[in-house]
Every structure is written in structure tokens, then in C-alpha cells.
Amino acid sequence: MSERVLFLYTELAGYTVACLQQLSRSAAVHVFRYPVNAEAPFQLDLGGFMRLYNRQDYTSAGLLAEVNRIDPDLIVCSGWIDKDYLKVCRAFAGKIPVVLALDNQWKGTLRQHAAAWLAPFTLKRIFSHCWVPGKRQSMFAKKLGFSDDNILLNLYSADTDAFDRVYTSYSETKQNAFPHRFVYAGRYHDFKGVRDLWEAFAQLQGETPNDWELWCLGTGSVQPLKHPAIRHFGFVQPGEMDRYMAQCGIFILPSRKEPWGVAVHEFAAAGFPLLLSDEVGAADAFLENGRNGFLIRAGDKESIKNAMRKIIALPDERIAGMMGLSNQLAKRITPAIWAQTILNVRHVRD
């Protein structure tokens, strides 16, 4: 009988589904999730390979009763915001591995120091392991008291096979005629640096007229800047992303705050050179500064302009030459690696 892995999630995104599908080949997968976020209304093909539960359908007691019925061999809990999720984890602590999923970077804030001080009396009594996407989050996990042996990496993975197919389909075309378009894909919020991006691009067009465009895919609270060379397309479903990728050349993510950024992984797998702010956690894995893109100082419009100016000044064949490295770096994390990470957690159940 295959082991039962339970995920206590908030949002469920397309990239998560690809990982869960991979895991379902070796384990029975059960997932509690919240309703779809209105700003990112993903239409997901769940394919019947896992058992889904709507979080809002369960009271605190009902949630625990349902989890007892599932009788999981391992639990993964997304953060510690949902107190009823924590009650479930507490009930199974010491009986099976109970894994905390954490994507916050260590910033040394007062709140983080408080969490670290309280962790021996709270989180460490509940969770046996901490699962993080990269080294910046690993530092936070260590501050919370988790040892290296109990810190798992690769919390997030893009659907690398899907985006590798995009790379294979369009790489030759781009090698022959590289598209002069930057593309941003993400929510329209100030912490994503979208105003910085739009204003920097508009200034660059005024200072150094060129034939490059900026295509933006997303929605949010920030009103789009109108400019002849900036196009806004709204939220794009994952299944429609490839036609935009085919027409664009450089992915840019100028976030002022970005714990990880799975979109970086997706665009890297599709062979995009990258312009990323130094706040983007995924830059550590998928960007080699100067080789497959450039690093930007977060919140610095001059830095954004300079990075775009560097790209515009390069010969097309040099930019196209960055594509293969991005695609190769994207293979550092895959759904198969993600699934194996959780399967490798050693059981503590008697």
C-alpha cells in the first residue's frame, strides 16, 4: 500500500499541480486548499490523480476528524497562519514527519527575531522538518532551530517539462530573429516593482529611442501606465502562456519583495535571459549575472534602466546565446526532484 502524503495548503497553483502529479506516481496525495485567488484565477487541470478537499467546508473539529480518517504517513503544512492547520499538525507531531513549508527570506526583522525566540516553545514542538525553496529561506529555518539534516530544499518547482517544450519549439526561431520585447508576468502591486519598471522603461525610451517593447501579463491594485511601447494583456492562464513567450525575448522581474518567484524558473526553463532584482530569491538558482542576464537593485529605477540598456546594446546573437544557459540552469529543480525530496523524509512513526 502506497504511503499517504497530506498537504495543508492555502493557494494551489499550476506549478504545484505538476509537482503533486509527479508525487502521485509513488504516493497517495491528499490536498486541502483555499479558494482560487481572484487576482490569479488559475484554471487547473487536476486530472483525478489526487484527492482534493475545500478548506472552507471544514470546521476545526471537522478538519481534524477528516485528517484522522485519511491517516497520513506525512504532513506538509503551508506556513503557520491557519490555526486549525496547526492543530492538525500538533495532533500528529512525534508520530509521523510533520513538515513546515516556509518561503520567507531571513531579513532579521523584529517579528522574525520574535518567531525565532518563540520557536523552541511553538514551531519546534510541532514540526519535525522545514521545507524551503533556497538558501535565503534556509537561513530563516536555522534561526527557527531546524538543523541542516531537517531542512529540505527545493520547495518550489516549475513544470519544467512544459516550459522546456516551449524552449525547444521557439529557440531556433529566436536564434534567427530575436524578439525585441521585455516581458513581465506577475501581479500589479507596488511590492512587485511594476511602477519602477514602467517608469524606468518609459524614461529609457525617451533617453535612448529604440524598437524594444515591454509586454506585461497580470492584474492587481496598481493602475497600468499607458505608453506607446508598453502593452498590458491582463491575467494569462498557464495554457496560453506559450504564445506570449514565443513573441518575447527577455523576462524581467524588478520586485521590491519576492521570497522566491516561480515565474523566474518557468521563464528560465523556456530559455529566457533574465533581468531580476536582488530581492528575488530564485535569482540565486537561475541567474548567473552577466552570463544569462543581469541583476538589478530593487527599487532603483536607474538600475532597471541600466540593465535594459545593456540588453538593448548587445547584438541579437549574443542575447540569443544566453537562452541555452537559462534552460540548463532551470534543470537544477524539477517536479521529479521535488517529489523525491519529500519521499526521502525518513519516517518517525513506530
Any chance you could write out the topology, listing elements then pairs?
Layout: E1 4-8, H1 14-23, E2 28-33, E3 51-54, H2 60-70, E4 74-78, H3 83-92, E5 98-101, H4 110-118, E6 129-131, H5 135-143, E7 151-152, H6 160-176, E8 181-185, H7 194-207, E9 213-217, E10 230-232, H8 241-245, E11 250-253, H9 262-269, E12 274-277, H10 283-286, E13 293-296, H11 301-313, H12 316-320, H13 323-329, H14 335-343
Parallel strand pairs: 1-2, 1-4, 2-3, 4-5, 5-6, 6-7, 8-9, 8-11, 9-10, 11-12, 12-13
List keywords for this structure.
350 residues, alpha/beta, Rossmann fold, 7-stranded parallel β-sheet, 6-stranded parallel β-sheet, 14 helices, 13 strands, 15% strand, globular
Provide a quick synopsis of the model.
The protein has 350 residues and is of the alpha/beta class. The protein has helices at 14-23, 60-70, 83-92, 110-118, 135-143, 160-176, 194-207, 241-245, 262-269, 283-286, 301-313, 316-320, 323-329, 335-343; strands at 4-8, 28-33, 51-54, 74-78, 98-101, 129-131, 151-152, 181-185, 213-217, 230-232, 250-253, 274-277, 293-296. The longest helix is centred in the middle third of the chain and has 17 residues, at 160-176.
